[in-house]
């Protein structure tokens, strides 16, 4: 009886997940806010023109949002009297950025279509547009997510993978979100753009053996054993502002910036083979990246009457 009850609960959860995802559609705003996609695209392009780095920041916001109780815009909420938000969680504190760009997008959307486009969907669209703007692939973003009314710093601290994770911890972290080892390797490819702080790669350049000695030495010149925590280095040393597949080539050469990056090419055949495959075939990487981004964007969305459409992405209505 207990076994039957467990199976029943699993089936119910699966049905609920399917129903939520089935309500997402690339045409969700086609009649209620037909200019939504063009507004986001224009704002993202302007932001990247002003500061190229923000493209990687916007992509990261979507990733960090989805990994904490689903793609619900919770990351964007400021602290209030009822909860401590996710912005000050360890993976985000002094690190997550691009919130002002989201504010600008939301302000324009509220003028064009008041209380229609969710903050969660803004993050999903802006992530895609950032990738495209920096030379990467495009995909049809599924839309129709609603916004959470709360956030959780503790959930962010436990759910977002850390740069110090080994491969088994990375696999577990992604698996908890319904993402496969293949998704892990593909989505890690987003580190083809952007920068990381010294505090994120310090242990890798001083303590690890799976790193090119000259590469480690060059990084030690800017990142001492203590201090200079906020000094930045490119995640992809070759083309840090262009979305391509050179991230994987770096791993082959033991020049991954983060411990978690290099773990993908450190003896496990399931990930090593994928790294080699994407290093050799940019077209394949782009195709698979688009698929995995769509899959990640479907993690536990709020749909129907759940959640709300925030007027201001920083606070619940």
UniProtKB/TrEMBL annotation:
* EC number(s) given by UniProt: 1.11.1.7
Q: Which reaction does it catalyse?
A: 2 a phenolic donor + H2O2 = 2 a phenolic radical donor + 2 H2O
Give every Plant heme peroxidase family profile domain span.
23-317
* Major localization class: secreted
Q: Which PROSITE patterns match?
A: PEROXIDASE_1, PEROXIDASE_2, PEROXIDASE_4
Task: Please list which residues make up the signal peptide.
Answer: 1-22
List, separated by semicolons, the cofactors it needs. heme b; Ca(2+)
Q: Which InterPro entries match?
A: Haem_peroxidase (IPR002016), Haem_peroxidase_sf (IPR010255), Peroxidase_pln (IPR000823), Peroxidases_AS (IPR019794), Peroxidases_heam-ligand_BS (IPR019793), Secretory_peroxidase (IPR033905)
List the keywords (alphabetical). Calcium, Disulfide bond, Glycoprotein, Heme, Hydrogen peroxide, Iron, Metal-binding, Oxidoreductase, Peroxidase, Secreted, Signal
Q: Where does this polypeptide localize?
A: Secreted
What does the record's cofactor remark say about binding? Binds 1 heme b (iron(II)-protoporphyrin IX) group per subunit.
Annotated family: Belongs to the peroxidase family. Classical plant (class III) peroxidase subfamily. Belongs to the peroxidase family. Ascorbate peroxidase subfamily.
What role does it play?
Answer: Removal of H(2)O(2), oxidation of toxic reductants, biosynthesis and degradation of lignin, suberization, auxin catabolism, response to environmental stresses such as wounding, pathogen attack and oxidative stress. These functions might be dependent on each isozyme/isoform in each plant tissue.
Q: What is this protein called?
A: Peroxidase
* Organism the protein comes from: Hibiscus sabdariffa (roselle)
Q: Lineage from the top down?
A: Eukaryota, Viridiplantae, Streptophyta, Embryophyta, Tracheophyta
